[in-house]
Backbone:
């Protein structure tokens, strides 16, 4: 290709000298209409000739044209090709408008193969750098949320380095990961890698939604793929970008709490003891107020002075007003601050380019002393000479996380101890656990829960992650229609986790339990513990691609042949000190008893060969087929080879039948596809061979012993097979101002790998087998209104992405119609996946609570009941963008519904009685609303007058209402305002005489608002207890810190 | 074209190394794919010891049969106090026993060479030991089709309990024969035998005692005497042929003072730094029936089984009482001895009690009184302490005012033997204690659960089949027929 260019250049040059007298020069700039930014690297050519130039970093071009030239053609990827009549002018500024997806856009598909969007018979979506980072995100995942149909992103917890769950088109597997595969510069890595990428390094993200689009990637790709391409240098003049984004994070929602009752464990105090007695001085009297109580079942707060805790060794004690501390729980949390600094340098021309970036993100969390810092750099470059080209990209990131651990007594997290502190106690007074005698473990008021500041100071989880990802491509184009390239990739990651919890020993005075609490001191001394683990993962990939492009008359053909090799080596070491001797010395040698140790080496290899053929007819009909065969070391020789075929087709009806085309309908495309992919779903890479474990407790001195594994090895295991069909259309109306893409899909995944419980009398507890089928169906709709409104410089763009998705369990295995996943999640035949099943109160046929005719108390039912499913059916994302000259306002909101969430935190709070829920009815006996009593066998009558026997702890905590999780199960629907950003481009060109090329300031906000059904008074239903990789969604507990709001500002300068 | 051929050549080279490349998961670098017999045995024995020595696994037996109760600080387990067994109750014992059996079965399978006779014999004996327990607890259980995944059996059928028992006797005879016929150059078991340190004579005696236990278990059955007599006759059956005083079957892999590596009974109560386990020591307390028996008979073991309260006396509670005194006796120092105390498989005094009973019943010859007194003496010696000596035992046994102690003063010596056996099994062997009561009805003074809402006047006579079996092996469970925890007796209860 380049040789050809050289020839052309020579020809132009000779032509130039001959026509010297008849030429003139045209200059100008090319800018983008959307944001007014310069467009570097756009090609400006004279129509009908090969004369042309490229714009520089400022979007400036200079072009010498023949006198008789009439029209300039300006072209840039992602922009609409624009023709401008010259009309004798010597300065022509061109404004390009964005290209609408689906028309002429180039899409990066599997293996970095660039294909025209019109060729594709499957649904894909592209997110560019600007869409990704408009709200100053430090995490790529946040920038993707709500922007593409079919893509569901859950931030599953909170904190300084939150975990995320990313799925495309819902769930396909019961137990195997449903997370999308990430392909970063051609190297496949797990989705969790996204957290270590600098979003500003990303050129674009291509979302290959279904298995059909990703079949070529083989084994890992059945869940869809996010193809991320990082930036390369562009523009002959070097461009330096410097930016800072500073954001602040505050707690936005806590579970709904009560501010009416204080510390005490008494029962029904409100009803039976109207004259409260308090322990007001050092002489202890009696319940109901209990000065050292962890529970809030005491009397109503009345403002009088009461004693808190007990008498200390030196005779001192605390008195506090018995009244609620305003904002008591929120006060505990800090304002988190995140400082993100970026520098990048880029330069390039059509043959060489170079890009380097540095980023540092320094975050402090809402829980005091929680910190996270991510520092990284990326270097990328390319060079081409003649028919040879080379390209490389290397990125390194180091992430250091330091968060609080658990306390010594019951190993609870900080959040637990904060949430359960009675409302009259101002926790912030007990920060100084060293000097404040009422804050250290001896003097802290609470007889049962340690001071949350103890864990903050004494128990830490420190993680360091190093990630190095590099790829290099060598390519040759020996003939115009032939391109051969080889890409090598490597990913090297280490994860070093260090955890410690100090010991705790009570002073002898407190060991005798002088307050009579019978709590923490009785277990003293508590031994300190520490452990450290180190894992390294090394992935090497190699991909050979041979591309053959041909044209025969009206037909075009593109053939790709390839080979792919993948190897993954993983090592893990673990050492634990279960009983520290000398305090604060966290070394495994400083211990009692034996250390805990662990080690594992894992390796797996696979290879694949593939072919991919696209046939085109007159550029309006396309047929594409791909086939791949994989061999994977995790399966036995007999089963390790498997095949993935796929076929898709597209037809541009508006081009095939030109008469259809009008100003109203400018584009219409129909598409459809069928594919089959396989996924090996084995956590254990050695599951096909028997294994023996070291017996529990062994070795004892010089004696060791082994036992058979309790899982039966299965040499017959095979991959899970996903078959997916999809069909859809794309249409543009009113000269592309309205673009609509609709897609329907169905995937069936058979032969799921499940750990079947088998009869223990077989000698084994379980065996992995292939059984069961999950069917996922959905509809994806993307509507883009660009612009919805345009009045001079003012414009308004709106895009709407709507997804409807259901996953239905068709079968599990013979004789088994229910498979537990984890917590409250199950696969249940005939139900959506994951089904949420919990215990419920006894109800009549109409769902009314049946209460005991004597006691008025509800009763726990005996069986688990189905309450819905954990995955949303409806996901709606709306992006709105208003711009006026240099000012733009972007808003991203989304809505999800159809699913339920079980909030374990509700039950936790009912134990201590700090929740609003536990203080309903003022802790007075009451008639359970909408309750019925059984008057005959199966005959019920409304309960109008039987009040509950108890009303405080014995009802809300000990009562059956708290023994069933359905009490805390709510709709998981929500509306969220995900992003709000206002950016302004300061017209600096005239101010600094060109020293600063561009300056932009912005205000950003994320997660500013969340609307939930009134029943969900607990937490963000997007959260999930088991992190990003588990399919057991729909369950939260106290280990997810509360949701937060993030707001801040950003400054970006370009030199 | 040249370049293309180079690439093809590379592909070809890649192809030849494919076998190695794709074979990396055919050997596991983290765990063994096969293990020799001498390394299997210690873990299998230690697991067996763990199953029967972790108090919570069979605690219900002590609670139901007058030995222990739950201390006042704890909420009563109504499943137990109301005799309201569920299928899921104690299903972990079923799982643990079968998973452990798999190891002995594997050991037996890899020990077919006569050189490995000792390993094969031990495997057979321990299989018999565990299958006997399975039958004693659940009646009909998978036996002939159990542990046969190699033959593709994932849902084993259930066998008739009496047939299993009879086959186990045959297996024990075979095990003893294997020991007797072992060639001179047979591989020694040696130190890997954490029970008898490779003393095959003791293994032989243990097998014979186990056989005696299984036959005596059937002694209450009507019309079973001739079977018992003929089964006993297949191996020697004098006192010298059974485990004698000081020959207890005890497992000790070399327990060390480190969490997860201490004696499992001890570790239920104490951490490695000698502080108490949460919910450990103060969960169990003395049962008033046991306290009454011990104190009324001036038993030298009384304060070894249970620790006196701060007021200096033993105080217990009848099981299932709604109001429990806040101060009750914890388990005593004779039971909770040290982190490295031996884990019990079968005590010498159980063997002696069995022999005394066998003589008394006329199955074997010998001196029933001497055997009985030796049994009680060994129990007293085991419990230790200031009164844990021969003299104290002799004085105790000599008290002719106590018919449940003094053999000659007893009007029903079988009852005395079994009542004394009951008290000596407290905290020692819950399964033996349970089986003895069910087959003999002794002791006859137990206060059954005081819980007013209990489902039956007397405790269950067996456990229900595990919920896991109902879930994954239902056809075979159904084939056994309807099981009732109070009426579906184990076959040897048919008296």
Residues:
């Amino acid at each position: 290709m380049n040789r050809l260019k050289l020839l052309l250049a020579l020809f132009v040059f000779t032509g130039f000298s001959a026509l010297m007298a008849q030429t003139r020069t045209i200059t100008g700039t090319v800018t983008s209409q959307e944001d007014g930014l310069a467009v570097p690297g756009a090609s400006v050519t004279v129509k009908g000739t090969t004369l042309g130039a490229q714009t520089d970093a400022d979007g400036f071009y200079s072009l010498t044209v023949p006198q008789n030239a009439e029209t300039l053609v300006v072209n840039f990827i992602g922009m609409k090709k624009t023709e401008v009549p010259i009309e004798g002018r010597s300065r022509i500024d061109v404004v390009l408008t964005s290209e609408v997806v689906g028309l002429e856009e180039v899409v990066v598909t599997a293996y970095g193969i660039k294909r025209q969007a019109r060729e594709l018979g499957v649904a894909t979506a592209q997110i560019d750098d600007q869409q990704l980072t408009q709200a100053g995100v430090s995490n790529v995942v946040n920038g993707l949320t709500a922007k593409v149909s079919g893509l569901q992103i859950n931030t599953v917890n909170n904190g300084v380095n939150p975990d995320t769950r990313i799925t495309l088109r819902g769930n396909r597997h019961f137990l195997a990961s449903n997370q999308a595969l990430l392909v970063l510069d051609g190297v496949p890595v797990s989705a969790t890698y996204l957290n270590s990428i600098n979003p500003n390094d990303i050129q674009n993200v291509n979302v290959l939604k279904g298995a059909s689009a990703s079949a070529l990637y083989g084994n890992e790709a059945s869940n869809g793929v996010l193809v991320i391409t990082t930036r390369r240098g562009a523009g002959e003049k070097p461009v330096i970008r410097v930016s800072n984004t500073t954001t602040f994070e505050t707690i936005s929602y806590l579970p709904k709490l009560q501010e009416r009752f204080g510390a005490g464990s008494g029962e029904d105090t409100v009803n039976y003891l109207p004259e409260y007695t308090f322990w007001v001085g050092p002489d202890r009297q009696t319940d109901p107020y209990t000065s050292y109580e962890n529970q809030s079942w005491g009397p109503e707060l009345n403002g009088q002075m009461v004693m808190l805790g007990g008498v200390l060794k030196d005779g001192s004690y605390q008195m506090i007003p018995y009244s609620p501390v305003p904002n008591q729980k929120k006060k505990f949390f800090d304002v988190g601050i995140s400082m993100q600094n970026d520098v990048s340098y880029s330069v390039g021309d059509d043959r060489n380019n170079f890009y380097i970036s540095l980023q540092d993100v320094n975050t402090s969390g809402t829980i005091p002393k929680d910190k996270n810092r991510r520092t990284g750099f990326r270097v990328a470059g390319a060079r081409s000479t003649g028919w040879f080209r080379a390209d490389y990209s290397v990125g390194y990131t180091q992430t250091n996380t330091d968060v609080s651990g658990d306390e010594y007594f019951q190993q609870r997290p900080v959040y637990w101890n904060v949430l359960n502190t009675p409302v009259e106690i101002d926790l912030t007074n007990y920060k100084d656990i060293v000097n404040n005698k009422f804050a250290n473990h001896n003097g802290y008021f609470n007889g049962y829960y340690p001071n949350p500041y103890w864990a903050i100071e004494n128990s830490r989880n420190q993680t360091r992650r190093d990630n190095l990802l590099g790829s290099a491509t060598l390519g040759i184009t020996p003939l115009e229609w032939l391109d051969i390239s080889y890409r090598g990739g490597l990913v090297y990651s280490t994860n070093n986790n260090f955890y410690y919890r100090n010991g705790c020993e009570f002073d002898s005075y407190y060991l005798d339990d002088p307050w009579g609490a019978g709590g923490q001191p009785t277990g003293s001394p508590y031994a300190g513990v520490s452990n450290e683990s180190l894992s390294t993962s090394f992935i090497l990939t190699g991909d050979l691609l041979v591309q053959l492009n041909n044209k025969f008359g009206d037909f075009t053909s593109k053939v790709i042949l390839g080979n792919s090799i993948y190897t993954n080596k993983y090592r893990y070491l673990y050492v634990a000190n279960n009983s520290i001797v000398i305090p604060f010395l966290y070394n495994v040698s400083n211990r009692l008893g034996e250390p805990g140790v662990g080690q594992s080496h894992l390796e797996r290899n696979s290879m694949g060969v593939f072919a991919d053929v696209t046939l085109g007819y007159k550029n309006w009909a396309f047929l594409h087929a791909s086939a791949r065969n994989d061999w994977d070391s995790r399966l036995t020789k007999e089963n390790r080879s498997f095949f993935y075929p796929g076929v898709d087709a597209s037809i541009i009806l508006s081009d095939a039948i030109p008469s259809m085309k009008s100003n109203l309908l400018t584009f219409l495309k129909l598409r459809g596809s069928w594919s089959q992919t396989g996924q090996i779903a084995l956590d254990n890479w050695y599951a096909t061979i028997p294994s023996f474990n070291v017996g529990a407790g062994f070795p004892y001195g010089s004696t060791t012993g082994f036992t058979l594994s309790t899982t039966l090895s299965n040499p017959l295991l095979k991959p899970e097979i996903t078959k997916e069909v999809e069909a859809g259309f794309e249409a543009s109306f009113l000269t592309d101002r309205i673009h609509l893409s609709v897609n329907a899909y169905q995937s069936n995944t058979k032969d799921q790998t499940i750990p079947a419980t088998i009869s223990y009398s077989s000698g084994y507890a379980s065996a992995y087998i292939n059984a069961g089928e999950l069917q996922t169906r959905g509809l994806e709709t993307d509507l883009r209104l660009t612009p919805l409104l345009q009045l001079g410089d003012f414009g308004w763009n709106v895009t709407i992405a709507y997804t409807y998705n259901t996953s239905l369990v068709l079968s599990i295995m013979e004789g088994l119609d229910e498979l537990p996943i984890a917590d409250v999640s199950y696969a249940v035949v005939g139900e959506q996946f994951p089904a949420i099943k919990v215990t419920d109160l006894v109800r009549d046929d109409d769902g009314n609570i049946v209460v005991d005719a004597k006691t008025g108390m509800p009763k726990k039912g005996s069986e688990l009941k189905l309450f819905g499913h954990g995955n949303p059916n409806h996901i709606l994302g709306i992006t709105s963008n208003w711009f006026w000259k240099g000012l733009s306002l972007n808003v991203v909101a989304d809505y999800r519904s159809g699913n339920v969430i079980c909030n374990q935190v509700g039950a936790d709070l009912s134990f201590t009685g700090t929740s609003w829920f536990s203080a309903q009815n003022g802790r007075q006996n009451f008639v359970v609303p909408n309750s019925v009593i059984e008057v005959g066998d199966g005959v019920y009558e409304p309960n109008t007058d039987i009040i509950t026997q108890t009303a405080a702890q014995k009802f809300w905590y000990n009562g059956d209402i708290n023994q069933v999780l359905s009490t805390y199960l709510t709709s998981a629907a929500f509306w969220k305002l995900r992003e709000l950003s206002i950016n302004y481009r300061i017209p600096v060109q005239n101010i600094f005489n060109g020293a600063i090329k561009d300056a932009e300031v912005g205000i950003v906000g994320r997660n500013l608002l969340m609307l939930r059904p009134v029943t969900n008074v607990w937490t963000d239903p997007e959260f999930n207890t088991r992190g990003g990789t588990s399919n057991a969604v729909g369950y939260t507990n106290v280990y997810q810190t509360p949701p937060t709001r993030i707001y801040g500002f950003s400054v970006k300068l370009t030199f | 074209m040249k370049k293309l051929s180079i690439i093809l050549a590379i592909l070809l080279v890649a192809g030849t190394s494919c076998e190695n490349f794709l074979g990396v998961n055919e050997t596991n670098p983290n765990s063994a794919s096969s293990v020799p017999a001498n390394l299997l045995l210690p873990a299998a024995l230690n697991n067996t010891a763990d199953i029967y020595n972790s108090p919570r696994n069979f605690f219900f037996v002590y609670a139901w049969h007058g030995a222990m109760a739950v201390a006042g600080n704890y909420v009563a387990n109504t499943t137990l106090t109301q005799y309201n067994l569920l299928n899921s109750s104690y299903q972990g014992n079923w799982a643990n026993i079968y998973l452990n059996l798999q190891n002995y079965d594997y050991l037996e399978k890899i020990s077919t060479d006569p050189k490995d006779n000792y390993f094969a014999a031990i495997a057979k004996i321990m299989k018999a030991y565990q299958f006997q327990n399975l039958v004693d607890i659940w009646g009909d259980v998978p036996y002939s089709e159990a542990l046969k995944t190699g033959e593709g059996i994932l849902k084993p059928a259930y066998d008739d309990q009496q047939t299993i028992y009879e086959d186990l006797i045959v297996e024990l005879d075979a095990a003893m024969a294997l020991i007797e016929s072992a060639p001179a150059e047979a591989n020694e078991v040696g130190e890997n035998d954490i029970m008898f340190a490779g003393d095959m004579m003791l293994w032989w005696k243990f097998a014979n005692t186990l056989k005696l236990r299984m036959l005596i278990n059937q002694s209450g059955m009507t019309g079973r005497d001739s079977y018992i007599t003929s089964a006993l006759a297949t191996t020697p059956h004098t006192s010298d042929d059974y485990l004698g005083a000081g020959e207890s079957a005890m497992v000790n892999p070399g327990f060390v003072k480190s969490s997860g590596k201490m004696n499992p009974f001890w570790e239920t109560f104490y951490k490695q730094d000698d502080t108490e386990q949460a919910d450990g020591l103060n969960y169990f307390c003395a049962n008033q029936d046991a306290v009454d028996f011990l104190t009324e008979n001036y038993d030298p073991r009384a304060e070894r089984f249970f620790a006196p309260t701060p007021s200096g006396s033993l105080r217990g509670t009848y099981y299932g009482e709604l109001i429990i005194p806040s101060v009750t006796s914890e388990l005593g120092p004779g039971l909770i001895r040290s982190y490295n105390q031996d884990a019990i498989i079968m005590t010498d005094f159980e063997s002696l009690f069995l022999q005394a009973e066998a003589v008394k019943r006329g199955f074997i010859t010998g001196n029933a009184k001497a055997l009985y007194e030796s049994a009680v003496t060994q129990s007293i010696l085991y419990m230790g302490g200031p009164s844990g000596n021969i003299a104290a035992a002799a004085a105790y046994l000599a008290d002719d005012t106590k018919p449940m102690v003094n053999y000659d003063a007893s009007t029903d010596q079988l009852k005395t033997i079994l009542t004394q056996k009951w008290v000596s099994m407290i905290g020692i062997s819950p399964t033996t204690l349970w089986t003895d009561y069910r087959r003999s009805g002794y002791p006859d003074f137990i206060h059954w659960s005081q819980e007013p809402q209990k489902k039956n006047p007397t405790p269950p006579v067996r456990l229900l089949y595990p919920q896991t079996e109902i879930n994954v092996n239902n056809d075979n469970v159904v084939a056994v027929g309807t099981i009732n925890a109070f009426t579906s007796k184990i076959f040897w209860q048919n008296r």
Summary: Chain A has 13 helices and 55 strands. Residues 2-18 of chain A form the longest helix (17 residues).
